[in-house]
Write a structure and sequence with these properties.
The complex is a heterodimer of chains A (240) and B (311). Chain A is an alpha/beta fold and 240 residues long. Chain A has helices at 43-51, 73-79, 96-105, 111-124, 126-130, 141-153, 171-186, 198-201, 222-225, 229-236, and strands at 5-14, 17-27, 32-36, 58-63, 66-67, 81-84, 159-163, 190-195, 207-212, 215-221. In chain A, the strands form two sheets. Chain A has a six-stranded mixed beta sheet with strand order 6-7-8-3-9-10, with helices on both faces. In chain A, strands 2-1-4-5 form a four-stranded antiparallel beta sheet, with helices on one face. Chain B is globular, with a radius of gyration of 19 Å. Chain B has helices spanning 3-21, 24-49, 57-75, 79-101, 106-126, 128-131, 154-177, 179-189, 191-196, 201-227, 238-250, 257-272, 279-293, 298-305; strands spanning 137-138, 145-146, 149-150, 229-230. In chain B, helix 2 (24-49) runs antiparallel to helix 10 and helix 12 packs antiparallel against helix 13. Chain B has one domain (3-236). Classes of the chains: A alpha/beta (240), B mainly alpha (311). Chain A binds chain B through residues 51, 53, 72-75, 77-78, 83, 85, 89-94, 98, 101-103, 105-107, 151-152, 155, and chain B through 179, 182-183, 185-186, 188-190, 192-201.
Chain lengths: 240, 311
């Protein structure tokens, strides 16, 4: 069986500057892969290239065995990749319910199926259920992040990509978001996580892929990283 | 029936009844205001709901105006047909311009739409032999008849203006409450995120522009047929700025805002110009006051503070 999301030899450019040099990665169903690397290593660009926002010049993005690298971003989203970019970006003037509705309407599913999906998302984030009619711009940072993730889950994605979801949040929120990521894994979703902080990664990730200068380097099991500080030191400059 | 729908029906009912009580002068004004408010409502679809600041809506209004006017002048097509042609001309023009202009956003979109509108305006002048350019022409009175009724008659004219405005307003309400309207609002708030969620943003914006163009075309055609005059002024930049002003005054992304804004601005100019030639200065002060106290327009600010259910 092939991996849910498989990226091979991806090259991407911003203008004339090459940012990704043959980046490759694989995430399977029910697995959490974390991209780790310094600022500017190309982690966010990798997600954008998968999403079609930065058109890849070479390489392939395979979703469940189908090449999606030439599709426009809106079709990639419909194919089943949910993307929560850095900095949340809600529809601030719309209410929580309307934000979720935008997510639910995408696939044109029948109303009953939508209700079921919405119920599941609200089960994951009970705090959103209490605030359905509040304008989303007035939520706290953590609640906004939950809504952004919740909205992505409304598409029932097969692959969920999160770009620094816990950045700037308080510990209780970080814990909640971590639980949701683990819940998604348990349901068989392939999760691709971008982080800069090692301590945010190790408790959830199954495998860690180090990214350096737009290239994928070592890929190790997260459990092995606890002992092996050399890799952390080399790629992110931390560790003792 | 929800209270939102009820409110809009009540406003329409009030407008229908107003014509039996208003003195002649205001009766005529209100007919004109309703047609212009239909134009403002059209503008509100793209600017208010979809967040596209166009500086070229005069070309859609003008397309309707000239479609109806030229059809009457040269084709012998009378009022109802002229209105239909106006709607088609507005929608078609918006779709064609949209395909090109929607490759841009923000300031570039403003510039590109302005450029197209100026090109349309100059085209009207260039073909002065038929359009009579700035001078314009008067539509023959036998072309201004619907079902045997004369549109120059004040009561008929009022009902016709009411019908056009009512249709456009209810259309706006339907858009605002539909899932299409939700998507437009999402695009306004964050275009890229909407795309990431799987929506074809270009198509949605083009649809919005075409709907807006059709409404503006209807308003333009109605203006030509009801008031009997067609001239290049109505395709000039002034008529791209006015709907923006009306919508900002009444409240962008509110269904009734365009009408309220048009009404207030019309009477502000009407009243102030009766005792000073510097009436534009008064309009300027009014706009400054508006921005200070009603930054989201009158109904937009009311919605934020008092009536959150207002569509």
């Amino acid at each position: 069986m092939t991996a849910m999301l498989k990226v091979e030899g991806l090259d991407a450019f911003y203008g004339k500057v090459q940012v990704l040099h043959g980046l490759s990665l694989e995430v399977d169903r029910g697995e959490i892969l974390c991209l780790l690397g310094r600022n500017g290593a190309g982690k966010t660009t990798a997600l954008k290239a998968i999403m079609g926002l930065v058109p890849p010049r070479a390489g392939a993005v395979m979703l469940d065995g189908v090449d999606i690298s030439l599709l426009p971003p809106e079709d990639i989203a419909k194919e089943g990749i949910g993307y929560v970019p850095q900095g949340r970006r809600l529809f601030a003037e719309l209410t929580v319910a309307e934000n979720l509705e935008i997510g639910l309407m995408v696939r044109g599913a029948p109303r009953r199926a939508r209700g079921r999906v919405l119920e599941r998302v609200l089960d994951l984030f009970p705090v959103l259920a209490e605030r359905l009619h509040q304008r989303s711009g007035t939520l706290s940072g953590g609640e906004q992040q939950m809504l952004a993730i919740g909205r992505a889950l409304c598409l029932e994605p097969a692959v969920l990509m999160l770009d620094e979801p816990t950045e700037g949040l308080m510990p209780a929120m970080i814990q909640r978001i971590r639980e949701v990521v683990l819940a998604m894994r348990a349901e068989g979703v392939a999760v691709l996580l971008v982080e800069q902080r090692v301590e945010a990664v190790l408790p959830v990730a199954d495998r860690v892929l180090f990214v350096e200068n737009g290239r994928s380097r070592d890929c190790v099991a997260a459990s092995d990283l606890g002992e092996d500080h050399a890799l952390l030191h080399r790629y992110v400059g931390v560790g003792a | 029936m929800s209270r939102a729908v009820g409110l809009h029906i009540a406003v329409l009912a009030g407008l229908a009844l107003a014509q039996f009580t208003l003195p002649e002068y205001h009766h005529g004004n209100l007919a004109r205001i309703m047609v212009l408010a239909a134009f403002a409502s059209a503008y509100n679809i793209t600017f208010g709901y979809a967040g596209m600041l166009s500086l070229g809506h005069a070309m859609f209004f003008g397309a309707g105006l000239y479609a109806a006017g030229l059809a009457a002048e040269f084709g012998g097509i009378a009022a109802p047909g002229g209105l239909v042609l106006g709607v088609i001309a507005g929608a078609l023009m918006a779709a064609v311009v949209g395909v090109l202009a929607l490759r841009t956003t923000g300031v570039s979109f403003m510039i590109v739409t302005l450029m197209f509108a100026q090109a349309a305006f100059l085209t009207v002048l260039y073909f002065g032999e038929w359009t009579r350019g700035d001078e314009g022409f008067v539509i023959a009175s036998d072309m201004r008849r619907v079902l045997g009724l004369d549109l120059a008659d004040p009561a008929t004219r009022y009902w016709a203006a009411f019908a056009v405005f009512g249709a456009v307003m209810l259309g706006s309400l339907a858009v605002a409450r539909s899932s299409f309207g939700r998507v437009l609002a999402a695009i306004r708030e964050n275009e890229e995120r909407t795309r990431m969620l799987g929506y074809d943003v270009f198509r949605a914006k083009l649809m919005a522009l075409a709907v807006s163009g059709a409404m503006a075309g209807a308003a333009g055609a109605a203006y030509a047929l009801l008031f009997g005059y067609v001239g290049a002024t109505f395709a000039s930049i002034q008529y791209s700025i006015l709907p923006l002003l009306w919508v900002l005054t009444g409240g962008a992304a509110t269904v009734l805002g365009p009408f309220l804004g048009t009404l207030l601005m019309f009477y502000l100019i009407d009243v102030s110009s009766s005792f000073t030639t510097a009436h534009m200065m008064i309009v300027g002060f009014a706009l400054i006051g508006l921005i200070l106290f009603f930054p989201k327009g009158i109904l937009g600010t009311l919605r934020e503070r008092v009536v959150p259910w207002l569509p």
